[in-house]
Design brief:
This protein is 44% helix and 12% strand. The chain contains nine helices and six strands. It has helices at residues 2-6, 8-15, 32-37, 52-62, 82-90, 112-125, 141-147, 156-166, 187-209, and strands at residues 22-25, 42-45, 67-70, 96-100, 137-140, 171-175. The protein has a four-stranded mixed sheet. It has a two-stranded parallel ribbon with strand order 1-2. Helix 6 (112-125) packs parallel to helix 8 (156-166), helix 6 (112-125) packs parallel to helix 9 and helix 8 packs parallel to helix 9.
Length: 213
């Protein structure tokens, strides 16, 4: 939160716009909501753990702006780079900006989820995605509204990307120095990847069976 706020006033002064910070607490048992309440414009606490897709949908629907920036909660100090995600959108160069993060600093999974996501996006939309799973992205609210549907869990980014391309919106991937908490090779990390694999698989199946257009 502090990293986001550290550049807020500079961005608002330079752009003439206003940043609205919305934090969605997805039924967490920690103090996320209480900590965020001191700085955020709006904190929404979901009663149950509903998953990433539901949290993102709740956040963008509550936003008053027509440009939405999604950021994961574990970016730490690198979250200060969020204006660079928004700049191409403001300049009218694209409708969906996806951050491509630097390579992981330690060994994690086997790349199965990313490979399946990349091949699925290419097969279903014709777009070659370098970072199909990246949660750091900026998008025009029009893209989300026109899509008319949302995807649950960890498949939300892949579904958003496929639908945006299919509907004819301009997508741009941008290399940015975000970094988040990396998973390793502990049992809980493999469980997380398994859930992610299944969620992405369900999203690809839905996009194939019921294309947005």
């Amino acid at each position: 939160m502090q990293a986001i706020l550290s550049v807020r006033h500079d961005w608002e002064r330079a752009s003439g716009g206003r940043l609205e910070i919305i934090v969605v607490d997805d039924g967490d048992q920690d103090a996320t909501a209480q900590i965020a309440a001191a700085e955020a414009d709006l904190v929404i606490k979901l009663s149950n753990h509903s998953g990433k897709g539901a949290a993102m949908r709740t956040g963008w629907k509550a936003a008053s702006a027509e440009m939405i920036v999604f950021l994961d909660a574990d970016l730490e100090g690198s979250a200060r780079h969020w204006p660079r995600l928004l700049e191409p959108l403001v300049r009218g160069e694209a409708d969906l900006i996806v951050a491509q993060l630097p390579p992981a600093r330690r060994k994690g999974g086997l790349g199965l989820v990313k490979t399946m996501a990349s091949h699925g996006v290419l097969w279903l939309s014709g777009y070659t995605a370098k970072a199909p799973l990246s949660g750091q992205r900026a998008v025009r609210k029009e893209v989300l509204r026109r899509g008319g549907r949302w995807f649950e869990g960890f498949g939300v980014e892949v579904g958003m990307l496929i639908d945006a391309v299919k509907m004819g919106y301009r997508v741009r991937e941008l290399e940015l120095p975000f970094h988040h908490r990396e998973t390793g090779r502990r049992w809980k990390d493999w469980v997380h990847r398994g859930k992610q694999l299944m969620a992405v698989g369900r999203t690809l199946w839905l996009c194939w069976r019921k294309p947005v257009c």
